[in-house]
Amino acid sequence: MTFHLPTPPLCTPPLRTLSRRGLILAAPALLLPGCAQAQPAGGTPAQTEGPYYPRAIPADADADLRRVAGLGQVAQGRPLLLAGQVRNLDGAALPGAVVEIWQADHAGIYLHPREGRLVQRDTGFQGYGRVRADAEGRYAFRTIRPGQYPGRTPHIHLRAHPPAGGPALTTQVYFPDEPMNARDGLLRRVAEERRALLLARLSTTDEGQRAGFDIILT
Questions:
Q1: Strands 155-161, 98-102: parallel, antiparallel or unpaired by DSSP?
Q2: With contact defined as beta carbons under 8 Å apart, do 121 and 182 qualify?
Q3: I need a labelling partner for 60 at 20 to 30 A (CA). Which of 111, 121, 183, 215 fits?
Q4: Measuring CA to CA, which residue among 105, 130, 97 is closest to residue 52?
Q5: What pLDDT is stored for residue 201 in this prediction?
Q6: What stretches in the chain show pLDDT beneath 70?
């Protein structure tokens, strides 16, 4: 089974088709409307892994979290295309970097045995995905806008592994239009001038939303 990501703006290279076969896929070349934007200097701030990183990687762990292989249903929730570029501090792309995400479903429920509401989760939502950045360091996931987990603002967990090995960066992606951001303890621990590095760049599409999030590895 294959799926096609939406046509990108003119300032980006053409997209390629992604296949659902295998666990690590080549990500398409993609930036969101507005393309590269000025951001505070320094690497992407690290954040905690949280309690719900998968104990075992799901059999279906590709870039399309909205569909689980073998099931005919589509995940509930607002569709979201999360995409960006992995770069180093000098701005050079890091092709081959592996990017993982894991998140709650539309109701704020994680796919994890420690999740107290596990029986209520959307079984059509994959919950975890990973891709390998393409030759220009770009990655993309088709997912949903996560629901609010109790005590937290909506967010997506992300981990990026450098292509040449070394420590991975674990962080979280936030949405600038969420009112809970101002009260989220983990987000507030980040220096105010660096919080912009954790906020996705949002735009609306025919399917839902695009969220741009570039990853700067130190």
A1: antiparallel
A2: no
A3: 215
A4: 105
A5: 98
A6: 1-41
Per domain, the residue ranges of the chain are 2-217
Q: Which of these, 79, 198, 95, 205, lies nearest to 139 by C-alpha position?
A: 95
Give the residue among 176, 184, 172 at the shortest CA–CA distance from 203. Answer: 176
Fold classified for 2-217: Protocatechuate 3,4-Dioxygenase, subunit A (2.60.130)
**Nearest-5° angle of CA 28, CA 80, CA 68?**
80
Using CA atoms of 158, 163, 165, 167 in order, give the dihedral in degrees to the nearest 10: -30
Which pLDDT does position 217 carry in this prediction? 97
11 CB-side CA count, 13 A = 7
In the prediction, which pLDDT does 1 show? 37
Cα gap 83→33, rounded to integer Å = 11
> 38: burial class by Cβ within 10 Å (0-12, 13-18, 19+)?
exposed
DSSP state letters, 163-198: TT-SPPEEEEEE-TT-GGGGG-HHHHTS-GGGGGGG
- Check residue 42 and give its pLDDT: 83
The pLDDT, as a whole number, for residue 206 is 87
